[in-house]
Amino acid sequence: MSKIIAINAGSSSLKFKLFEMNTEQVLAQGLFDRIGLAQGAIKIKYGADEEFKTNEEIKDHSYAVKRLLGLMLNLEIIHEFSEIKGVGHRVVAGGEYFKRSVAINSKVIRKINSLAEYAPIHNPANLMGIKAFKNILPTATAVAVFDTSFHQTMPKENYIFSVPYEWYQKYGVRRYGAHGTSHRYVADVAASMLKRPLKELKLISCHLGAGASICAIKNGKSFDTSMGFTPLTGITMATRSGDTDVAMIAFMMQKLDMHSMPEAIYDLNKKSGLLGISGVSSDMRDVMEESTTNFRAQLAVDIFVKDIVKYIGSYTAEMGGVDGIIFTAGIGENSAEIRSAVLKRLSYMGIEVDEEKNLLRGENIVISTSSSKVKAFVIPTDEELMIARDVDKIMKKKNVKSAKLV
Ligand code: ADP
Question: Is pLDDT at 398 greater than 60 in this prediction?
C-alpha cells in the first residue's frame, strides 16, 4: 500500500488530495483556507461520503500541515504518518531550468526560490508548503511538479516574443505558459479514449476555468500555448484581459492618472476579462444568466467564444491539422452552451457536435458525432492525480533518496 499526497499551497491556502496509489483511489481531499488570517477554515472530505469542517485560526503553513496530519490520524484516514510515502507539490514557475518533475533536494529548493521573480506570490507560497511537509514527513519522497515544465518542449519560434532578443538572453523574458499539468493530463486521457498513441496525435486542449489557456499538443508535446510570460495573455478570462495592446496601458495611465505600471497591470489582471466587459461578474454562470437582457454580458460571452475559436484555428494551422479538441476545467466541463457555440463555428473543419452527448454529464465523454472529422471531448481535469502519478514514477526510479534540506 503506497499513499501519496498532492499539495497545492497558495499564499493563504493549502489544498490537498491523498491517494492510495495502487488503485489511484482518493482517500481524502480538502482545503485549509485563510491561513494567517483571524478566522481560518478547514474542510476535509473522506471515506464514503464524510466531511469534517471547522473554523479556527491557522497561524501559518507549518501549523496547517501539522493540523492536517493530526486530523488524518483522528479521522482514521491514516494510522501513522509513515504510511504517506510521497508528497507532490505543485510549483507555479519552473523557468527554463525545470523541464520535468523532480525529487526535491536543497538545490531544487534554492532554484525554486531564485525563480520567484517569475511568480512572486506563488513560488514563495509553494516553498512554504514544501518546507512544512519536509519537517513533518522527513523520510517521504518530496517531488516538485511545475505548471510550466510541460511547455518546455515548445519550439523557439513559439516561445520567443517579437521584442529585443537580449530581453530573453539577459532576463529570461519568453513564453512560459501555465496549466501544464492539466493539459498533460487531459491529453493522456484523450489518447487512451481514441485508442491511439499520444505520440501520433495533434490535440488542442482548452482549459477554461477562471484562469483559462489553450494548448496545442503535437505528438504528445506542448507545441504552443496561449499564456505567455505571465498568465495574463491568451483568451479573455474571468478578470484577466488576455491578449491586448500594451501601448494602450501608457495611454490609460495618463487618462486615469495612474502613477505606476503595477497599478495599470492590476487593472488588466483583476478588472478586465468577463468582469470588465460585462460589468456584471467574473463568474461565467452569472454572465450567461444576464446575457439575455444585458448586451455587455452577451458581448463578454461572445468575445470568450470568439477567442477560443481564434486560438483553435491558429493552432490547427500551426500544427498542420488537428485530431481532437478537449474541453476541461469549470467552464469547459460544465457549459454545454459554450462548447456548442465554439464547435459550431468550427464546422468548416468537419467538426460535427452531437448535441445530445454534449448535454451528458460525467466523466470523459466524446461529444462529436461518429462521422466528425475531428473528435471533441469533455475530460474533467485532475491535476492532483497527475502530480501523484509523477511522485509515484519518481519513487519507482532507482537511487532517489529523500535529501535533507538545509
Ligand atoms: P479555477 O480557475 O478557479 O480553478 P474553475 O475551473 O473552477 O476555476 O472554473 C470556474 C468557472 O467555471 C467560473 O467562471 C464558473 O462560472 C464556471 N462554471 C462552472 N459551472 C458552470 C456552468 N454550468 N456553466 C457555465 N460556467 C460554469
Answer: no
Closest CA to 327 of 283, 286, 293, 360: 360
**In which band, very low, low, confident or very high, does the pLDDT at 361 lie, cut at 50, 70 and 90?**
confident
Taken in order of first residue, the domains within the chain and their CATH numbers are 3-146 (3.30.420.40), 196-383 (3.30.420.40)
Q: Which atom of ligand 1 is nearest to the CA of 381?
A: 6
Query: Which residues are near ligand 1 (CB < 6 Å)?
Result: 209-211, 238, 283-285, 288, 329-331, 334-335
| Residues 76, 248: Cα–Cα separation, whole Å | 57
245 has pLDDT over 90:
yes
Please indicate whether residue 147 is annotated as part of the active site. Answer: yes
Mean pLDDT calculated for residue range 186-199? 98
How far apart are the CA of 399 and the centre of ligand 1, in A? 42
Its pTM stands at: 0.95
With the most atoms of ligand 1 within 8 angstroms of its CB, the residue from 205, 290, 331 to mutate is: 331
Whole-number Å distance between alpha carbons of 42 and 15: 10
Q: Which of 239, 334, 338 to mutate to test the pocket of ligand 1 (most atoms within 8 A of CB)?
A: 334
Residue 160 has pLDDT above 70, yes or no: yes
For position 362, what pLDDT does the model report?
79
